[in-house]
Amino acid sequence: MPGKNLKLADDFAADYDASVLQNNWIGPKVIFDLVKPHLNKPSSTLDLGIGTGESASPFALAGHKITGLDGSEKMLEQCRQKKIGDELVLHNLEVVPFPLTSNNFDAVISNGVFHLIHPITPLFSEVQRILKPNGIFAFSYEAFDHIEGSTQVEPGVWEKETETGVLTYTHEKTYIRKLLRDNQFEVIDQSQFLAFVNKKSNTKFYFEAVMARLKPNR
Ligand SMILES: C[S@@+](CC[C@H](N)C(=O)[O-])C[C@H]1O[C@@H](n2cnc3c(N)ncnc32)[C@H](O)[C@@H]1O
């Protein structure tokens, strides 16, 4: 139900940066550190679900050209105000094709987004289409730790509605690995990090970060 999630993203946009600061969101540093050694300057990098630009920011500071897609106009507005991104496009990531030409980017990143999207299968095919050969795809997804109260919507994918009404999706590692294989990606590096803590229930949520490379002979 993307519409509802995107409306909630709009409502959250003005407070997003203060909230991530308070919650010590280290995702942007994790993704940048994974990608940095593999990216020559100046690259053309796409951020899927760019939000207010937190994850794109270190790439922009390092001189990479940034294109950002997001389904929330209010999030993009915050990003624009921070002057992050050379091109920002309003687009629902559950809708394919993305309004981007094929064979176009050196790297695609997506951080803290996959748990909000269903299905993610078409997104992976799109990333394969728009990346250049040997291109990099770095992303995070929620670790498969907290599935109590979730419903399996397809093998390997679990759905849950949070207290705030957001529909979230947890993906099994084997599901993500199959998507990567099916789309000709080879995993180069990975790590796990603490994404946030629900202070009310004292629950820790970990994310998996993956850095993969598109095979040249796809
Ligand atoms: C938790 S924020 C992460 C933002 C940014 N990547 C970061 O690292 O701070 C999730 C972002 O995904 C966007 N998003 C969620 N569902 C989406 C969808 N279906 N299509 C496009 N964007 C979506 C939201 O608008 C929001 O900006």
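^ S-adenosylmethionine complex. The mean pLDDT is 94. The CA atoms of residues 114 and 141 lie 6 Å apart.
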